[in-house]
Amino acid sequence: MRDNDNVIIKPPFTEEMKKEYTILIPDMLSFHFDLVVGVMAQHGYRMEVLKTSHRNIVEEGLKSVHNDTCYPALLVIGQFIDALKSGNYDINKTALLITQTGGGCRASNYIYLLRKALEKNGFGHIPVLSLNFSGLEKEYSVPLSFKMVVKLIFAIIYADFIMGVYNQCLPYEQNPGESLRLVKEWNARLLSQMSGPSFVRAKKNYKAILRDFAAIKRVKSDKIRVGIVGEIYLKFSPLGNNGLEDYLVSEGAEVINSGLLDFIMYCVYNNIYDKKLYGKGGLGYAANCLAMRYLKARRREMIAAIKGHGEFAPPSDFSKVISAAGDYLDHGVKMGEGWLLTAEMLELIHSGCNNIVSAQPFGCLPNHIVAKGMIRKIKDRYPDSNIVAVDYDPGASRINQENRLRLMLANAKLNGERREETATQKETGTAEVAV
Prior knowledge:
Elements: E1 22-25, H1 30-42, E2 47-49, H2 56-64, H3 71-85, E3 94-99, H4 110-120, E4 128-131, H5 146-169, H6 178-193, H7 202-214, E5 224-230, H8 232-236, H9 244-250, E6 253-257, H10 260-278, H11 282-309, H12 318-324, H13 338-350, E7 355-361, H14 365-381, E8 386-392, H15 398-428
Parallel strand pairs: 1-2, 1-3, 3-4, 5-6, 5-7, 7-8
């Protein structure tokens, strides 16, 4: 809604509205958002993650935001507008929720574009809430108590944990669908634990999760391991990346995708690094240092559980991720995914995964610099690295995207055959000797 000065008025969301309003969330992280919604439900919020994925979402986005707006913004806003027009929701008792990171890109700025799009489509009365830890939109933010924050952190860690072992089971399962069934079972179990102390007793749950996934009957075969990096929405959202993970699995690959906790720790680390860049200290600096220590401890607890079990590969310690980018770019490069994108490519290579897909919005300057711009340098140092950048936007051809992925997979297969041939020659003593 606009006042007489043509300024968009932000409708409030009061405590009383929690009882009757449904809060819609755009789809991105299927492993994570169901647990996050469960945490919020414990505190009186009725939330629903939008699972729609049809073409009209893109069309609504194109009509509602400028065509130069980045693709993730177009999809998020298009999905909201599509849902409100679907007739499935009472538009007088519906609110929308969007996250804000506090950085200069993506999630910090979509909220303003969303409000403008709502007003344009006749939904200006619908409240828009912000979920952030940066003090943004204070009057319209979801209030987070310490207890809520702790539960949200554990929800994200559990989802990262389950996503990691699921990805290592899915390509090998003898009975299709068994891994996904187990994910749903564990989501239900964790949701049932949220009201009690067992939810934060992670070590016990880790052991049980590992035991259950290890019991899945799997075929022993050598799969091409492919890591996914990129802009955070396109990295995780099937709507944004045209079902990238499913496609890679269907082509015989095992997908490796770092967790959401990595991005959160990246944001916290950037706040700490600001002291070096700008001399920022005080309570904010101390709070971020405490948060980083806590998150690292929870991450190491997860890694120790996976290593102790021995069946699955654990994620990297975040300290290794931080140090990985050191020879390539400064940690002050933090617009969008910044140095993390380069660091994740390097950490994948260090862990033995040379095949990497970088999913990025077409024309996204930060991603083009820290992803495409660093690929040549990474390949110079690691000649066996097999990296492909795939652009996504409303006019991008899915066939062209899949052709680039097929070429990457073909190169991965060829590189594997060459390594096997070289190893065989060394064993039999038939390797050519340079004269």
